[in-house]
Each structure stands twice: as C-alpha cells, then as structure tokens.
Specification:
Layout: H1 2-26, H2 32-46, H3 48-55, H4 61-70, E1 72-73, H5 75-95, H6 100-119, E2 121-122
Parallel strand pairs: 1-2
Length: 125
Amino acid sequence: MVGVIRNWVWRILGTISVGLGVAGILLPLLPTTPFLLLAAWCYDRGSPRLHAWLLQLPCFGRHLSRYLHHRSMTPAAKAVSLTFLWSSLGLSAWMWVDRLPLRLILLAVGAGVTTHILLLHESSP
C-alpha cells in the first residue's frame, strides 16, 4: 500500500513539474529545463511508462534523453540555451531588479549555469 501511494506522489510531482516546465516556455522567468529534468526524475521513480513518454516527446524528449543518459548537448542547443539564459537574466536585471545584491545573484546564477552547460559533452544532432 505504501508503495502505491509513493508511486502516485511521484507521478503527481512529475506532472506538476511538466506543467511548470511547459509554462516556462511562455513565461520568461520560469525555467523550463530544470522542471522537465525534475519531472523525468520523479517519473523515473513513480512510473516507467510516464518516464518513457516524457523522453519520447517530439519537442524536447531527445534533448532530455541526451542530457540524462550522456550528460551531453548539441552545440546548437548550448548556443540557444546560453542565448536565452543571458537574454532573460539581462532583461530581468535591467527591468525588474533594482538592487545591486540581487543583480549580483543573477550574475552568479548565470555564471554557474553557463559553466555547467559549457562543461557538458558535445553530441551530434
């Protein structure tokens, strides 16, 4: 009984994460990738069927699978990711953040994510 409840909790958390990830496609400050990676992690624990479904989605399944199984990204995906990252962080710092400490936090987050992305292996498309 406990296992069944635990699986449902993982499925619900995964589904919420997918929803937040999809919303992040449209909302500039809501990150898509971390939520989709979280969804994959939750589904992996609660539903092999939903995990396989997520990794086979045409829009981003290939990218998630590459990252999860090989810790790699294509050069084009790296370029797009970094462009969107710095565009959204720059826009946020310019339009909505008026305090230097918060801008420095955005800069630190951007530097950390950039370092992570650049250190990933490069895979072919």
